[in-house]
Structure formats: C-alpha cells, structure tokens
Amino acid sequence: MKWKKLIVICSLAVLGGLLLFTVGEMPLFGSKDSPDKTHVIPRYLEKGEEEAGAKNIITGVILNYRGYDTEGEVSVIFSALCAVIALLGRERRRLSRSGVDAAGRPTSVIVNTVVKFLVPIILFFAVYVMLHGEDSPGGGFQGGAIVGASIIIFTLAFGLPRSTDRIPVGFRIPLESIAVLAFLSMGFLGMLFGVNFLTFILPGLSSRMAHTVRFFMLSFIEVGIGVAGGIIFTSIVFSMIREDEYELPPNLSQP
Amino acid sequence: MNFPRIFHNLNYAVSVLLFLMGLYTVAIKPNLIKKLMGLNIMETAVFLFIVSTGMVKGGHAPIVEKGVKASEMVNPIPQALILTGIVVAVSTTAVALALCIKIHEKFGTLDASKITGREEI
Asked: How far apart are CA A165 and CA A154, in angstroms?
C-alpha cells in the first residue's frame, strides 16, 4: 500500500519539523545556567556527599535521593524475569543446546581459549566496578551487566549444558531476588535507628564507626544489585536459548 | 526556525532524527523483531536527548574530589535517570522477545501482516 506509507512519511515529517522547531528554541547545549541546572542540582552537588554519603553524586542520587525509583527499577527487572519464565519456562537441560552445538561442528580452539582466559578477568573487573561505585564511576547495575555479559560469552562459546553445569538453577533462584531484599533490609536498618528509609548516615554512632557502617551498607546494596542483575540477565538468556529442534549429529554427543 | 541554534544544539537534533528513524521502523516494517529494533532505537534517542541536557561545557564528572568546585560539575540527575531507563528498556525488550518466541511457536511466522490476516502498510 503505497499511499499508507506516504501518509506515515508525511506525518513523521510534520512531527520532525515540530521537534526541530522546539530544538531551535531550547537553551544552548552545554550552557551552565539552563533551567534544568539551576534548581535542585546545586544542592545535590554541594551537599551530596554529606547527605547521601557517597563521593560519586550519581550513586548518591540513585541510592538515596531517588532510592524509591531504584527500588522500583529493581522490581521491574525482577518482574521481567518472572514474565519471561512464565512465558518460556526455565531452560530445559539435556534438550536445549546452544547455537554453537547446533552448527554441527565444534567452536574453534582460538575462541574457546580466549573465552576461557577472558571470563575470569571480566568477572574480576565486574567486582571492581560494583565495589567502587561509591567513589568512582561504576555501580551495581553496570557491574551486573558485565557479569551477565561474561556468562553469556561463555554460553555462546561452550554451549548451554556446560554453562548450566557451572551455574545451576538451584544456585540462581536465591540470587535472583537478593537485590530487592538488600534494598529492603538496608532501608529498614535506617528505620530501626530512628531515621528515614534508606538513610546511610545513622545517628548515634562515632564518626569512624559511621563511616564503616555507611561503606558496608552502600557496598551491600551495590553488590546485591550487581549480582542479582547479572544473574537475572543470565536466566533470561538461558530460558530464551532453545535449539531443541536441532538434531545433533551422533559424533557430537555431549562431552 | 532558528537554524543557528539548531546547529549549536546538534545533539538534540540528532536525537530527533534517531527518534524519527525508530518511529518509521515501528510503523512501516511488518516483522516483529524489526519493530522491536525500532523501539530500541527510539529509546536510545530519548536517552541521548536526556543525557545531553545535563552537559556543561568544560564540566567535570560529578564525583567529589579535591580541586573540583561543585559549580563546575555536570548535572548528575539525567545520568542517574538514564541508568534507570536503560535497565527498564532491557527488561521490556526481554519480555517482548519472549512474546515473539511464543508467537513464532504458535503461528510459525513473525510477519505481523500474516498473523493478523490484514494487509499491513
């Protein structure tokens, strides 16, 4: 249908014109005094460290000022996992094999060796990113994405059965929910001390003690988010891999 | 139209273009996976736009350090919001792909016009 396509293109052109007109009226890119930088932001930047307890203001915003947002986001990835598993089910071991196995010939030695060599290093880097979220670029979600990526690389190179041997379902189920639990437990820990939900600077502690406690709480939440995020992405990918229609050639039975 | 300012705000203009490309893909392509790709391009355009609003020329990363004044840092709020947005985008994409797998199992095709029986654009 040519004319329908024409209508779509015309309406997109009108929309694009309107949006570009708006772009032409917006504050200059990179200017210091545009309205979005003059209201709440100076306070976050100046008092972020003492109020939210993290040198990295973004971590402070994510975990303290807008902690409820992040809590909702953690619930969103958890419910996405629930929806995917409700639709597809967990991976079926013995039946499902990765695309590499279905290709009918083994992965090349070079790929196998490089992946074997790289996966531990990638995981190590992920732990670094998670633990240093409070005073340098990084944080839980970024670390979790790296964890998920390393496990997915391993799965692509060695196949689903070997991957699920190392990370079985029974190991993943408890880890998938610890992000929400970490958030709730650390939030209520603040309430036990008589301050607000998700406050990292507890009253009634000496300053050295308060520093340690704050570091422990922030790291606990970051590692919880990271591990849970990585495992959730892994579980989603595992349940999406389904090559069980492929017949393996007899000389390529499972190692 | 204020053309000099559009060229100065090039990031915003490019994100508008990306958004239109994504919307075109969603509207025209019959294949469900391609529609999803279009949706992801639209999401990326919105992320680019919002992150760009926080930029300060010559600004520092919003990490408290010695020798960096708070007034010289970039806006941290868009970065924090987009971090949330990226994770939500990944989640919605995962659910949509799972639905695509189920649709392919049931109908044997991912072509929206064949599934609905109507002729798409």
From this structure: 12
